[in-house]
Amino acid sequence: MASLATIFGSGAMTNSIREIEGMDVIFIIGSNTKETHPVIANKMLKALRRGAKMIIADPRRVPLVKAADLHLRLRPGTDVALLNSIAHVIIKEGIHDAEFIADRTEGFEKWKKSLTRFTPQYAEKITGVPPKDIIRAARLYGGSRRAGIFYTMGITQHTHGTDNVNTVANLAMVSGNIGREYTGVSPLRGQNNVQGACDAGALPNVYPGYQMVSFPLVKKKFEEAWGTSLSGKEGLKATEMMPAAIKGKLKALYIMGENPVLSDPNMNHTVKALESLDLLVVQDIFLTETAKLADVVLPATCFAEKSGTFINTERKVQLVRKAVVPPGDAREDKWIISELSKRMGYPMDYESSSEIFKELGELWPALAGITHERLRKRGIQWPCPTKDHPGTEYLYRAGFPRGKSSFTPVQYKPSAELADKKYPFVLTTGRNLFQYHTGSMTRRVEPIEVHAGEPYVEINTNDADKIDIANGDMVSILSRRGRIDAKARVSEIVPAGMVFVPMHYHEAAANLLTNDALDAHAKTPEFKVCAVRIKKK
Predict the structure, then answer these.
(1) What's the distance, CA 82 to chain centroid?
(2) What is the pLDDT of residue 448?
(3) What angle do CA 51, 55, 59 make, to 5 degrees?
(4) In this predicted structure, what is the pLDDT of residue 437?
(5) Domain assignment present for 63
(6) Are residues 115 and 210 in the same domain?
(7) Residue 228 sits in a domain of what CATH number?
(8) What b/e string do you get for 229-243 counting C-beta neighbours within 10 Å, with b at 16 or more?
């Protein structure tokens, strides 16, 4: 048996974007959806106009809060306590889905016992959320059978991110809001085709289709398909590579479409790691901060300069068609990889991207029924096992693939670094509407720069008054790892004791400050909580 969090470990939405408009309750936690996923946010707003209720759990007063029925303004890093207390109320008031629990889950009684102390009053001490709001959230979400949970990196980027995901899964199961239309758990993906990259095996422990490298039969299957011997040993996760490089255990690194100098925590640590390598190769469309450190830069093509497929956050496979000729010496990723492989002794002779996708379908049944020819008419959601299958809008209709799903008892653990006398504020990082990720594309667009080209830090009004900072003042933000300077934005968007810095600006790189402590299981860094102090320049 497996927990639901393990079952949807692919990170994809269990349900489709279309279904959002038909939900009665939308529960958003750890996601600034209006700014980071505006298309999905618009679907949510349509649902609200139809009469749906919205709950938002977020320390910041993010833009979508204006439309929400309930804002749970929890302290950063206290998601487990909040979600456990909501589940506690759902069970206490008898609004859980007893039939679903009996038929499709196991471990309920043990999990229920683990919630005993998570009363709304106990949770308030940890989260700062009033008991009446916790009870109302439980009644709204737990009392509905057309409810969906949406989260992003505000849930996962913690030292207890795996625990957070497990508590989300527990909440979906106790209410029976999984395996049916207009329900589900939706981890919204943060970058284009990150879902497709994971599906295709760009992870250290799996082959395409999440097939474990450590399973001998899986290994044999791919060895026969690819005509070569393969290792049964899992590789390093991205966040494990930097410490390994510093220790001299990792000698070379090949980075594609990623800018870890700005996107990884503890920037100085990342730069030191990259400079410790014998060889750094970067394949990208621009000379990013990371590419500037590379020994070799391989110029790649952007989305409009290549053909192939993208798979989005709802598992929809979509065809991408080449629209323009790449500039200069830029080449498609598949050409670069095939050429490198051939010159290293293993020929990859693919005629086209459709041939590569066909191979994926032969090795992973979830894609077996999808072809480029079908995709020319419309996108198709996996799993799609046969050529006449329409695709799957929502998962687990007929049950879970590994039998009954297990509830996972989770206890609250504090974040790795909390505010103290020397560093009295909690910093959290994220994105804004106009810039994207590390800005390697958007910061080259002049109209965007005119509107949103300046780094800033959000500070609560009361905190700003106490340290004599006015709106627009230049301030320094300091952590145990570094210092940046940015303009203060004084408002009620952030609560007292917390500050927010967007991650997009290299001249005030938020990840100079963040903590590189990792989740023990997923090895995800704790971007969302670290201790800082603020001083006026």
Answers:
(1) 20
(2) 93
(3) 150
(4) 87
(5) yes
(6) no
(7) 3.40.50.740
(8) eeeeeeebebbebbe
- Two tokens at 183? 């329900």
- Cα–Cα distance between 476 and 532 in angstroms, integer? 10
Question: CB–CB of 29/79 below 8 Å?
Answer: yes
- Tell me: do 216 and 154 sit in the same domain: no
Do residue 175 and residue 262 come from a single domain? Answer: no
The predicted structure's pLDDT at residue 315: 95
pLDDT at residue 5, rounded to an integer: 52
Instruction: Report helix, strand and coil shares of the chain as percent, to nearest 5.
Output: 35, 20, 45
One domain, residues 221 and 177: no
Please state, for a pLDDT cut of 90, what percent of the chain lies above it.
Answer: 89
Question: Do 130 and 265 belong to one domain?
Answer: no
Number of domains within the chain: 3
Q: How far apart are CA 91 and CA 108, in angstroms?
A: 11
Residue 26 has φ and ψ, to the nearest 5°, of -120, 115
Residue 168 has pLDDT above 90, yes or no: yes
C-alpha neighbours within 13 Å on the C-beta side of residue 308 = 22
CA distance 392 to 35: 28
Task: Judge whether 25 lies within some domain.
Answer: yes
Query: Quick one: 468 and 526 in the same domain?
Result: yes
What would the pLDDT profile of 467-489 be if each residue is shown by its tens digit? 999 999 999 999 999 999 999 99
Q: Residue 532: which of 518, 516, 513 has the closest Cα? A: 513
Q: To 10 degrees, the CA torsion angle through 290, 293, 297, 303?
A: 10
Residue 273 Cα distances to 276, 297, 480, 509, angstroms? 5, 18, 18, 17
Mean pLDDT within 159-185? 95
Q: Is the Cβ–Cβ distance between 325 and 335 less than 8 Å?
A: no
Instruction: Label residue 192 left, alpha or beta by phi (over 0 means left) and psi (-120 to 50 means alpha).
Output: beta
| Residue 168, in any domain of the structure | yes
What's residue 70's pLDDT?
98
Find the farthest-apart pair of alpha carbons in the chain and give their distance in angstroms, rounded: 68
Q: Are residues 9 and 39 in the same domain?
A: yes
* SS3 state of residue 282: strand
User: What's the pLDDT score for residue 1?
Assistant: 45
Query: What CATH number does the domain containing 93 carry?
Result: 3.40.228.10
Here the tokens at position 516 are 């590189």
Same domain for 159 and 249, yes or no, is no
pLDDT digits (tens, 9 = 90+) for 195-205: 999 999 999 99
The answer to the question of residue 113 being in a domain is yes
Q: What is the pLDDT of residues 68-115, one digit of tens each?
A: 999 999 999 999 999 999 999 999 999 999 999 999 999 999 999 999
**Helix (H) / strand (E) containing 79:** helix 79-92
Range(s) of the domain holding residue 14 = 2-188
Tell me the residue length of the chain.
537
What average pLDDT does the segment 270-296 reach? 96
